[in-house]
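Run log, item B.
One chain of 139 residues. Sequence copied directly from the ordering sheet:
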Amino acid sequence: MPWIQRFITLPPMRRGFHLITRRIEAALPELGSLESGLLHVFVQHTSASLTLNENADPDVRVDLEMAMNTIVSEDFPYIHTLEGPDDMPAHVKASLLGAAVSAPVSQGRLALGVWQGIYLCEHRDHASSRRLVLTLQGE
């Protein structure tokens, strides 16, 4: 199978951790035809990030947001403040978590662990839509 690449735009989301696994799967119907492969997901923004984590208990999303806000405080004396007090902390959080995740594909499905899901981590209070690049390869 040739490489497949799709761009999807997620609507604006509130600050926090948002499970997006199903949106990604819906954008790639070709997943079902692969015996094995690899999916790479990249967010084209510097104030949002991606991560793989617990997908069952919604409290995990709340705790992840609280932990990131504790680790990266808005009270730090940032120099880059033109876009508001949440902007530079958002860049730091995005650098800590990263702009991409990869997941294996096996027997037509993402081979995630039972309790794993892909999250968009929105670090801005008033974010815009977010664009993802999905790149799939397999056979």
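Observations after the first pass:
- The mean pLDDT is 97.
- Residues 4-138 form a domain with the Jelly Rolls fold (CATH 2.60.120.460).
Flagged for discussion on Thursday.
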